[in-house]
Write a structure and sequence with these properties.
This protein is of the alpha+beta class and 404 residues long. Helix content is 38%, strand content 18%. It contains 14 helices and 13 strands. The strands form 4 sheets. A 5-stranded mixed beta sheet has the order 9-10-11-12-13, covered by helices on one side. Strands 1-7-8 form a 3-stranded mixed beta sheet. Helix 14 links the parallel strand 12 and strand 13. The longest helix has 18 residues. This is Winged helix-turn-helix domain-containing protein.
Length: 404
């Protein structure tokens, strides 16, 4: 029996709809409406790089242009509607999902205790009680508030003193909760002071099977279709073997089915989807033609290989590549138009001059850069200018480059 097949354009539209990028960018961007958007995405990755705006702010702005950075801060730090932990990286996650992180706390405790013994400095486990007592007595702390008598390392940003490592371990394993950031530095408090008592680790049983089922279901809801490996990678808590077993059970029970998705290069890829996939794809809106600047850490692009298969867009961030070896630039933003990724733009904020400086734009090889596209880009950059509180957009003389 032939498998059901999604053509590439339909698959892209469905995938974009699940990532809140198919509908026109509009709508409420604070309070309950912002929380609804984050729940739809599942999480928003946090990142410190700030050439234009931080990644989490760009992710939300690209979907809701009325969004401003303070909206997320209030939702997270004042309303406690979000908590911070790890998926594939540090992220803010709806507080409603917190019970499903108990398994992550357990697994991180086991993993990090063995891993960090090999590449962090010794002594962090002996600092657990001291760090917890300090927070109990003095309230929330940042890493600069503990371990003041400990020698700082000289091995780079990862060479933490033992008390900082203890803070991170106690957070990752659930004893501490990050309550916010100051200058992007995390502030930690005792979990029982932040999270409702009945939800705290130790007060709520952790059923691994139920958690794996929830995580796989939630990942598939947000991806639309996926392999077992992609389901496991979405939250980065479930193992690939657990996700594979979950898929196999779903197929036997008729809750899932195997389908084929046509990749951008015409190849077919077998994936798992719900039996309603055809109706879901038909109901998905066709993406808006407006040009949007995406964060390099946008959830639609997080899985670089998937983005390349589905959109034919090869993207790698070059932050850690020496300048002379970069293909494009330090922190280059992908450009979305309709259901296509049409290029990438190198730009940064110059606060002293109040200017958004555009140094280069590289269209994709398949894209003819027209005057209409330039006009659409200028409109989008003007929205970015207002978002970042600048006065003008400034283009370098030879900003439009030949495709690479």
């Amino acid at each position: 029996m032939a498998l059901q097949r999604l053509d590439n354009r339909t698959a892209r539209a469905l995938f974009m709809d699940r990532h809140a990028l198919a509908e026109p960018p509009s709508g409420g961007a604070k309070g309950a409406e912002l929380l609804d958007l984050i729940q739809r995405l599942g999480f928003v990755q946090l990142d410190s790089i700030n050439t234009v705006a931080r990644a989490h702010d760009m992710i939300l702005f690209s979907r809701r242009p009325s969004y401003r950075a303070g909206n997320l801060k209030r939702l997270y730090e004042r309303d406690r509607a979000l908590f911070e932990h790890w998926t594939h990286d540090a992220a803010v996650i709806p507080m409603e999902f917190y019970p499903h992180w108990h398994l992550r706390f357990q697994r991180d405790a086991d993993l990090l205790k063995s891993r960090w013994k090999n590449w962090r400095r010794d002594g962090f486990e002996q600092r657990f009680a001291t760090v917890l007592q300090h927070i109990q007595d003095h309230g929330p702390v940042s890493s600069s508030d503990v371990g003041k008598d400990e020698k700082k390392g000289s091995g780079g940003w990862w060479d933490w003193h033992p008390s900082k490592t203890a803070l991170e371990f106690l957070w990752r394993s659930g004893a501490l909760t990050v309550i916010g950031r100051q200058g992007f530095q995390k502030r930690y408090d005792l979990t029982e002071r932040v999270i409702e008592t009945h939800l705290c680790p130790g007060n709520m049983p952790c059923d691994a099977e139920e958690t794996v089922d929830w995580l796989c279901n939630a990942a598939l809801d947000r991806l639309g279709f996926a392999t077992s490996g992609e389901l496991a990678a979405f939250w980065d808590t479930v193992t690939t073997s657990e996700a594979k077993s979950w898929c196999e059970r779903g197929l036997i029970q008729g809750k899932l089915e195997e389908i084929e998705v046509t990749c951008a290069d015409g190849r077919l890829r077998k994936v798992i989807a719900r039996p309603s996939i055809s109706e879901d794809a038909e109901a998905a809106p066709r993406p808006s033609g407006r040009i949007r600047v995406l964060s390099p850490f946008d959830p639609m692009l997080r899985d670089r290989n998937r983005a390349e298969r589905l959109f034919g867009f090869h993207y790698r961030i070059e932050v850690f590549v020496p300048a002379a070896k970069r293909t494009y630039g330090y922190y280059v933003f992908p450009l979305l138009e309709g259901d296509r990724l049409i290029g990438r733009i190198d730009m940064k904020v110059n606060r002293d001059r109040g200017v958004l400086q555009v140094s280069a734009l590289w269209p994709e090889r398949s894209v003819r850069w027209s005057d209409a596209r330039t006009k659409g880009l200028q409109s989008e950059l003007d929205r970015v200018r207002r978002f970042t509180g600048l006065d003008n957009v400034e283009f370098a003389r030879d900003w439009l480059k030949d495709p690479k």
